[in-house]
Design a protein that fits this description.
8% strand; alpha+beta; four-stranded mixed β-sheet; 2 domains; Glutathione S-transferase Yfyf (Class Pi), Chain A, domain 2; binds glutathione
Length: 206
């Protein structure tokens, strides 16, 4: 059984969904209930995944580690296809996630409202331009992964849930919205959200 340290509605939700998709049993632990979480994850960030013998950090690295252990349509065997799957995971983790992080950072600043709105809108434009890249990729395919969804599709769907936390316009094309709808409806996705809701009931949800 794996133990996944998470924050509600954070990127760690994607890790939980991928673990469900791979058929793993996972106990989730809200990091707010862990004293000295920095001893587990030095940066204080989730996800952190405790296995029998080690703790894995960094969402993209955790997923690639799990995906390559078994045969799954989320991580194709062919060299070109696998390279694309890794590139897509990194696009989600290292490009889209940081673009959203700017919104959280700006929102947290104690600056005057006008400056904050200008900065938030500029950051939102950056996020929208990344979603337009996703939309272009979806010409003739339902998912970044092709006919079958990939870990990157799951990661992007988790990040898209952050739109509602900011009062800005984030634009997404129709193919992108279809992708996000399909992933949101997966049993694994619904299960992960229900799991977080149940386990975080004792805390204020983000
Ligand atoms: N590079 C890290 C970044 C993870 C990250 O930014 N996690 C956020 C949540 S989405 C976090 O834990 N922030 C600090 C916090 O919630 O206290 C990864 O991909 O795992």
């Amino acid at each position: 059984m794996y133990q996944l340290y998470y924050s509600p509605n954070a990127c760690s939700l994607a890790t939980q969904v991928v673990l469900h998709e791979l058929g793993h049993e996972v106990e989730i632990i809200d990091k707010r209930g862990v004293t000295h979480f920095n001893e587990i994850s030095a940066t204080g960030a989730v996800p952190a995944l405790k296995t029998n013998d080690t703790v894995l950090l960094e969402g993209a690295a955790i997923m690639i580690n799990m995906l390559e252990k078994q045969t799954t349509p989320m991580f194709p065997q062919g060299v070109a296809e696998r390279t694309q799957a890794i590139e897509d995971i990194m696009f989600a983790n290292a490009t889209m996630h940081p673009a959203y992080s700017k919104l959280f950072f700006i929102s947290s600043l104690d600056i005057d409202d006008t400056a904050k709105i200008i900065a938030l809108n500029a950051a939102a434009d950056g996020v929208s331009s990344l979603w337009s890249i996703v939309e272009q990729r979806l010409h003739g395919q339902d998912f970044l992964g092709g006919d079958h969804y990939s870990a990157a599709d799951i990661m992007l769907t988790v990040y898209s849930r952050w739109n509602q936390l900011h009062s800005v316009d984030i634009l997404m094309g129709e193919r992108t919205r279809n992708l996000l709808g399909a992933i949101s409806n997966l049993t694994s996705f619904q299960r992960a959200i229900a799991n977080e809701t149940k386990h975080s009931a004792a805390y204020e949800v983000l």
